[in-house]
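Task 17 of the worksheet. Students: predict the tertiary structure of the chain below and write it out as structure tokens. Keep your answer in the requested format; marks are given for formatting as well as content.
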Amino acid sequence: MARKRRVVPIPNPPKSAFDKNRPAGALLRAQAVHLRHALARHVQKVARHLNKVGELLATDLDAIKTEGHVSDYAKRVTAVLHPRGGKHAHK
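Model answer:
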């Protein structure tokens, strides 16, 4: 038997809860540090991704002679274009 989900109402904060000119507290500044760290990691992932793309674009297509070569190239390109490997389609 399925459990009934209890909904807990959360009131909207008052308009005075945010003041773009108020000095940020330690918690907000710490969040900015965490966001910067996440962004730096993202940049590293993007750089690795771009390196892979660059290598694939530099591939001499005239050197691809066999079905095996095409298969290998297609796997590598597909891995870049679809990094999750189609996992989202299997939900």
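Marker's comment: The radius of gyration is 24 Å. The chain is about 50% helix and 0% strand.
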